Amino acid sequence: MELKTNAALIIIDQQKGILQPRLGRRNNPQAEERIVDLLAYWRRTGRPVIHVQHLSRSPESVFWPQQAGVEFQERFMPQAGEQLIQKQVPDAFCATGLEASLREAGIEQLIIVGVATHNSVESTARTAGNLGFDAWVAEDACFTFDKADYFGHAHSAEEVHAMSLGNLHGEYATVVSTAQILKAG
């Protein structure tokens, strides 16, 4: 496992709205600290950072543009020289120009972190893999929420997270820990 010098860190939806208690119980309480660790490393080593911001089409969403939940959390504010991608669906590649900007910059390796594991992280990682990128998902730098399945059976955030990572690993992405990523650098 080798981390390329131009590997892009893609931070998905680290906006104020994701902290809303109404979203329910979550897993990985240390996920934001792991994202901060990776972001600090990326900035220190001059690797590309891409911030993904969700602009919901639904007024009920925590990411509705007309309220504070859509704003980035302070610790994840984009800095000069870092790219901002705004999306309206879970997949950060869909109608955003992300693929074109990565290809133009010659970036082939993507480290994907953020929220929610089963939603925007999984859909973005699936597309990354389908497009031929070397996608890594940092399992301890992502989190999700308790969720019922199609048949109404409740699953813990830990189970939802594990299933989503299982869907990705080996087919669309490589699932790794923050420590493995930093060690590979």
TrEMBL record:
<dbReference type="InterPro" id="IPR036380">
    <property type="entry name" value="Isochorismatase-like_sf"/>
</dbReference>
<dbReference type="Pfam" id="PF00857">
    <property type="entry name" value="Isochorismatase"/>
</dbReference>
<protein>
    <submittedName>
        <fullName>Isochorismatase family protein YecD</fullName>
        <ecNumber>3.-.-.-</ecNumber>
    </submittedName>
</protein>
<dbReference type="GO" id="GO:0016787">
    <property type="term" value="F:hydrolase activity"/>
</dbReference>
<dbReference type="InterPro" id="IPR000868">
    <property type="entry name" value="Isochorismatase-like_dom"/>
</dbReference>
<keyword id="KW-0378">Hydrolase</keyword>
<feature type="domain" description="Isochorismatase-like">
    <location>
        <begin position="7"/>
        <end position="180"/>
    </location>
</feature>
<dbReference type="InterPro" id="IPR050272">
    <property type="entry name" value="Isochorismatase-like_hydrls"/>
</dbReference>
